[in-house]
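Data follows
____________
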Amino acid sequence: MSVLQRLKGGLVASCQPVDDGPMDRPEIVAAMAQAAVAGGAVGLRIEGVDNLRAVRPLVDVPIIGIVKTDLADSPVRITVTVEDALALADAGADIIAYDATPRARTNAREEVLAAILAQGRLAMADCAALEDGQAALLGGASVLGSTLSGYTAETEGRHEGPDFELIAAFKALGGFVMAEGRINTPDLAARALAAGADAVTVGSALTRLEHVTGWFAAAVRGAK
């Protein structure tokens, strides 16, 4: 069974703790990943080469790898260099995700995509708009993600929740569609599949304890 067949119709858990928080350690990320798989996740999204190296020997589900970098002159953060892509391939990622928007970064999106494919890995295009997905498919990406819709200057505020319209538009393009971004309830995950997604990635609601605790704490305070 291929990697994408294994992900089809399932949940991908994004095991990304809050940066520099108490859970931001490779051994804890590895434990999160194991717990997510035990709970039914059919795949994982892991940030950072050290975290990926810690997780890879412990699970047999497909892993989407990314490296996040804060650049001084660009808002692009996801797998911004060819070097990052090569390191993720070496660490055992089955799929490597990259920022597929046309925004400037260290290496152009086309260069990063080509590096991923040259390593024999599948590429996931983290997109903000339909045009990003169209360009990614032409370049050889296998997975189109709605990841960045609402997180770029051009799309900020477009949707309060998941971008179901973009998911449906990607489905019409062909390729494998990954719903990702602001999917924080089981109902929204199910709606993403109904909109045309092949699989759904959920992050904060599963693995960022500080965020989830904050949601409940705010609700309790508001009820007083």
